[in-house]
Amino acid sequence: MRIGIIGAGAFGTALGVALASGGRAVTLWARDAVQAGVMRETRRNERYLPGIVLPENVSVTAEKGDLGASDTILLATPMQRLSQVIGDWHGLLDGRVLVGCAKGIDLSTGLGAVGIIRRGCPNATPALLTGPSFAADIARGLPTALTLAVADSGKGEALQSLLSTPALRLYLTDDIAGAELGGALKNVIAIAAGAVIGAGLGDSARSALVTRGFAEMQRLAAARGARPETLVGLSGLGDLILTCTSDQSRNYRFGLSLGRKESFDPSVTVEGAATARAAVDLAARHGVEMPVTSVVADLVAGRKSVAEAMDTLLNRPLRREI
Ligand SMILES: NC(=O)C1=CN([C@@H]2O[C@H](COP(=O)(O)OP(=O)(O)OC[C@H]3O[C@@H](n4cnc5c(N)ncnc54)[C@H](O)[C@@H]3O)[C@@H](O)[C@H]2O)C=CC1
Ligand SMILES: O=C(CO)COP(=O)(O)O
C-alpha cells in the first residue's frame, strides 16, 4: 500500500523519510515542479530539510494523478492553506483516508484540520497526526511519540499500524477536538515563551507564562468538548513543553525575535501567529478568558510591545490559581 503525502516542506518530507525508512512505499507531492525535479535528482530537500537523504522508496512528484494509487494521504501543508488545498484536490481526496498534519485554527472558519477535511471531503475518513516532533528529528530516525486522532477506533487502529515505525510511535485517541486544540494553541504560547526569553525577562517568567498559558488552553479545549486528559497528553502538554523550550521551534524563534526587536523571515511557517487571532475569536464565542493568547495576538499584530504585553498580564486582578 502506497502512502501519499501532499506538501514537500519540512514535515511532509520528514514523514516521507520516516515512513519509507519503516518499509512503506511513499509518494511525496510537491506543488513546485522544479523543486520536485531537483528532489528526484539529488534525493534531497535542501530548502526544507537540509542534510537528509530521501530513501529509494520515496517517489517525488508534482503530478496530482500520481497520488491516485494511495488510499491514505497525509496533508502536510500549513493550516491556513489547508482549506484551499482540499478545494484544489477535492475530486481525488474525497472517500480516502486523509490525515491532517497541520497544527492550527483556520482563521475564516474557526475549524481545526479535521474540521476542514470534514467540511471539504464529507466522504473521507479524517484523522489528525500531531504531537511533539521536529521534522529534523523524525527524519533522522530519532525516537518520537505522536498522537493519532481518529473518530472511528476500528479505522484508527489500522491507521495506527500503517503509520507507526520502530522509531515513530503513535498513540491513538478519538478525541479530535482535544488533539486539534492542543497542537494549535501550544504554538501561540510558544511565541509568548520566546518573547519573554528574547526580552531578557528570565526563565521564571517563561515558566509562569507557559503554565498560565496551559491553563487557558485547557479552558478553551473544555469549552469545545475536548477531554481534559487529552490536553495533558502528547498533543497538548507534550508539544507545549517541546515548543516552548527549543530553539528548533519556529514559533519560539519568532517569539525570540519579537522580544529582541529583531526582524524575522516572513517566508518561515509560524502557525501560532494566525492561530492566536483565530483563538481569540473562538474564545470570545465561548466566553472563555485567554489573556496570554490575547496579548500574543496583539504582539503579532504590532498593537503591543513585549513590555506592554507583560504589563497587561501583570496588572490583571489577582485570582485563585484554579
Ligand atoms: N516542521 C516541523 O517540525 C513540524 C511541522 N508540523 C506542522 O506541519 C504543517 C506544515 O509545516 P512544515 O512542513 O514545517 O512547513 P514548511 O514551511 O516547511 O512547508 C510547507 C509546505 O507546504 C507547501 N504549500 C504551501 N501552500 C501550499 C498549497 N496551497 N498547496 C500545496 N502545497 C502548499 C509549501 O510549498 C511547502 O512545501 C504545519 O501546520 C506545522 O505546524 C507539525 C509537526 C512538526
Ligand atoms: O510542531 C512542532 C513541534 O512539535 C514544530 O514546531 P514549530 O512549527 O514551532 O517549528
TrEMBL record:
Keywords, alphabetical: Cytoplasm, Lipid biosynthesis, Lipid metabolism, NAD, NADP, Nucleotide-binding, Oxidoreductase, Phospholipid biosynthesis, Phospholipid metabolism
Domain Glycerol-3-phosphate dehydrogenase NAD-dependent C-terminal span(s) in chain numbering: 175-310
UniProt-annotated binding residues for NADPH: 11, 31, 48, 103, 135, 250, 271
Active site as annotated: 186 (proton acceptor)
Keyword Oxidoreductase: yes
Binding-site residues, sn-glycerol 3-phosphate: 103, 131, 133, 186, 239, 249-251
Molecular function GO labels: glycerol-3-phosphate dehydrogenase (NAD+) activity; glycerol-3-phosphate dehydrogenase (NADP+) activity; NAD binding
Membrane-spanning ranges: none
Subcellular location: Cytoplasm
Catalyses which reaction(s): sn-glycerol 3-phosphate + NAD(+) = dihydroxyacetone phosphate + NADH + H(+); sn-glycerol 3-phosphate + NADP(+) = dihydroxyacetone phosphate + NADPH + H(+)
PANTHER family named among the record's database cross-references: GLYCEROL-3-PHOSPHATE DEHYDROGENASE, GLYCEROL-3-PHOSPHATE DEHYDROGENASE [NAD(+)] 2, CHLOROPLASTIC
Job description of the protein: Catalyzes the reduction of the glycolytic intermediate dihydroxyacetone phosphate (DHAP) to sn-glycerol 3-phosphate (G3P), the key precursor for phospholipid synthesis.
Similarity remark: Belongs to the NAD-dependent glycerol-3-phosphate dehydrogenase family.
Protein name, entry field: Glycerol-3-phosphate dehydrogenase [NAD(P)+]
Gene: gpsA
